[in-house]
Amino acid sequence: MSNKKTKKIIISTLIAATSLGLAYLPIPGINQTLYVVSGSELTEPLNQIETRFEQENPNIKLELKFQGSQDIVNKYIDDKNDFKPTILIPASAEFLDEIKQRWQNQNDPFYEKPESIAKTFLVGIAWPERGKILFPDGQFAWNKLEKAMIAGNWQKIGGQNNWGSFDFLITDPTRSNSGQTTLFLWVQSLGKPLNDPQIQELFRTIKNSVYLPPRSTDILLQEFITRGSNDVDVATVYESIALYRWQQSQINQGKPYQIYYLSPTIETVATAAIVRRDVGGKEAKAAQKFIEFLREPEQQKIFIKYGFRPVINGIDLQTVPNSPWTQNIPGSELNPPVNTVQVPNSQTIGEIQRLWNRAN
């Protein structure tokens, strides 16, 4: 065989081998990086789901960012992030509606119709001995909470003298959904309009009682657990995070907190949307793949493990491995006897924020 012919064979073999290799390797320029901005309550499940999704989709990389839901809206509208978001997942669809209303461009700010991802309720939590004094019938009551704030210390409402001051905690309603929802439900319990003097006085009472409200619900609950009953007695959080972190309270404080279901309450449905600004068609297609992945049964079971309720049918909460609904968490119920009310619109939330900022 001539040297010329041998050289041709070698070159042909190298070309074939290279082509075969390219078929199995990610091609530069095809890889997609998705920036997913979510409410902090989804931190743990999304971190776990991220690993699984990237293993199944090696050409798609996720960058997870966590913010309070109101921060998600404000930072996106004002373009204040140091990255370009691809997917927004605030605590409820109403935050996405707010983006639409505030959007200056005539086009829809989102590629597709937003999709629900996971859901939960707002609940109250209290250290057991404090809860028995404040809610002796086992039912959460806003009026009793207000009376305790006005009294200022436990001795005046039947508690022990060494318990000290009465301390309540909510998230910052200018930054977080759970703080906004707390104030909305509290106002609803009084049956008065937001401009009523009694509501304005209520906001002053709450604001004077809540010192440095955290920016997100997960941070709030970790503070509640770390500080213990000497510093904070009652708080409002999501059922999901209360179920997930109850063992941490058992370890840190030697006792778990008690969960109280509010009735009426608000069902909070975390909702995902793909944004248009700075997001191309191929990136949007990869983002849609991730959202569909989140709604699959196996990922919904991960959300359940972290205390969320699924948004698809056919999953038994009690049969999911490590389900919190099988752990006898104080006060938790599989089907709590609660009524739900409609999530407040952006106009109502805006007025709640203004009242909060003016209260002193």
UniProtKB/TrEMBL annotation:
<dbReference type="Pfam" id="PF13531">
    <property type="entry name" value="SBP_bac_11"/>
</dbReference>
<protein>
    <submittedName>
        <fullName>ABC transporter substrate-binding protein</fullName>
    </submittedName>
</protein>
<dbReference type="InterPro" id="IPR050682">
    <property type="entry name" value="ModA/WtpA"/>
</dbReference>
<dbReference type="GO" id="GO:0015689">
    <property type="term" value="P:molybdate ion transport"/>
</dbReference>
<dbReference type="GO" id="GO:0030973">
    <property type="term" value="F:molybdate ion binding"/>
</dbReference>
